[in-house]
Design brief:
Blueprint: H1 7-12, E1 16-20, E2 23-28, H2 32-41, E3 43-47, E4 52-57, H3 61-68, E5 81-87, E6 93-103, E7 106-111, H4 116-127, E8 148-151, E9 165-168, H5 172-178, H6 183-191, E10 197-202, E11 205-210, E12 220-224, H7 230-241, E13 246-249, H8 251-260, H9 297-306, E14 309-316, E15 329-332, E16 337-346, E17 352-359, E18 368-371, E19 396-400
Parallel strand pairs: 3-13
Antiparallel strand pairs: 1-2, 3-9, 4-7, 4-8, 5-6, 6-7, 9-12, 10-11, 11-12, 14-17, 14-19, 15-16, 15-18, 16-17, 18-19
Helix pairs in contact: 2-8
Length: 406
């Protein structure tokens, strides 16, 4: 398995390590609930340096990214960023990425660790004209872009290398500034709005500082140091964050936080066995069909005309119920199966919150549903055979929440 620059730090702090997407990563240090609450109430620090980090630069960088991303990359101003789903020619989701504009013709693209190799191969194949990009015109190739692709985790990139470390929670900015900054840097970081970024030196470490994250927190940062300074940044933030209640967090809290926030995970709410698309996940606003062309545009529009399902958030109404798992059946109040669970985790109130893909006509906020956790092969005897003292498995009541927390 691969290891991040912070691997030794995780071991020294007693983290429980697990395999994830080919990487040996911390799943928790204390507990998922403890780290979840720390992020919501103070701040959490996450090692996400397993994520892929690319740079796209050159005079045609915008045009190239607009061809492979469903969102409008040209609309991002320098110092801004956006969610950038990548589709294949049949509108299947290759990955959901985040695109940062560091300069007029210089972009940083962050991709999921599980899709890193696939994404890198796809981007290079498109740029080099090696793959079909339009089923209606199979001879067409997206070729000739004057754009250079660089993998910023590759040692050959030298001083330009970057990895991702996430600082999330209401005290995140206070902690970042407590690392030590000059007055000008302080002003620039204080001025950052959500999705904005700047280049800064914090605590003597050169960083790309972006107000983005994957926890649903309004005050959230993703910090991009050179991998050689990742340990210094990690230790510095933990030290500066002690008075504020900062805690290191593992993959468990990262998953519970994003589930509570209604954010998709590739393989669960996008792609995966259900082959869910961007619109099914509730993110159609990030697909700009007003663009004259991007890979998957026509297929996406055709798919939308036939789509009948959507993702919802739901929550069990009592504590102590069993965890739901992907694939568990979801039923309406009349007992009719309307969909399946895609994710489930504990939330800030100690209840289980999840996401489910259900038929669109049943996706009404406040509607009562029920879930058969564990997808039991048998629920027991048929009703006519039941006698006093027999037990049968019942689905657990839940309610549909707003798609994203209000």
């Amino acid at each position: 398995m691969k290891r991040t620059p912070l691997y030794s730090e995780h071991l020294a702090m007693g983290a429980r390590m697990v395999e994830f997407a080919g990487w040996e990563m911390p799943v928790w240090y204390t507990s998922v609930v403890d780290e979840h609450l720390a992020t919501r109430q103070a701040a959490g620090l996450f090692d996400v340096s397993h994520m892929g980090v690319y740079q796209v630069e050159g005079p045609h960088a915008v045009a190239f990214l607009d061809s492979i991303c469903a969102n409008d990359i040209s609309a991002i101003e320098v110092g801004g960023s956006t969610y950038g789903p990548m589709l294949d020619p049949d509108s299947n989701v290759i990955d959901d990425t985040w695109v940062y504009r560091r300069g007029e013709n210089r972009f940083m693209v962050v991709v999921n660790a599980s899709n890193d190799d696939k994404d890198w191969a796809w981007l290079n194949a498109v740029r080099q004209g090696q793959v079909m990009v339009d089923p209606k015109r199979p001879w067409t190739r997206a070729f000739g872009y004057k754009a250079t692709l660089r993998n910023l985790r590759d040692p050959k990139e030298g001083a330009d290398r970057r990895v991702d470390i996430a600082l999330q929670g209401p005290k995140a900015r206070d902690i970042l500034l407590a690392m030590g900054v000059d007055p000008d840097t302080r002003d620039r970081i204080m001025a950052l709005k959500r999705t904005e970024l700047c280049e800064a030196v914090v605590g003597g470490i050169d960083l790309v500082v972006a107000r983005t994250g994957y926890t649903g927190e309004k005050m959230a940062f993703e910090l991009f140091p050179h991998p050689d300074r990742a340990v210094d940044l990690w230790k510095g933030l933990l030290e500066a964050g002690k008075p504020f209640g900062l805690k290191p967090c593992g993959l468990g809290a990262r998953d519970s936080l994003r589930t509570e926030a209604g954010l998709p995970l590739y393989g669960h709410e996008m792609g995966g066995d259900l082959n869910l698309g961007v619109a099914e996940a509730g993110f159609s606003s990030f697909v700009k069909v007003y663009k004259p062309w991007f890979i998957g545009r026509d297929s996406y529009m055709a798919r939308e005309k036939k789509r009948q399902g959507i993702l919802v958030r739901f929550r069990f109404q009592e504590k102590g119920v069993r965890m739901a798992h992907p694939g568990d059946p979801v039923m309406d109040k009349k007992g009719r199966v309307i969909g399946v669970v895609t994710s489930c985790a504990v939330d800030s109130e100690g209840l289980l919150t999840g996401q489910a893909y259900i038929e669109q006509k049943s996706a009404e906020e406040g509607a009562a549903i029920s879930v058969y956790q564990g997808s039991p092969q048998s629920i027991g005897k048929i009703p006519s055979e039941l006698k006093a003292g027999d037990r049968v498995i019942l689905p657990t009541p839940a309610v549909i929440l707003s798609r994203f927390p209000k």
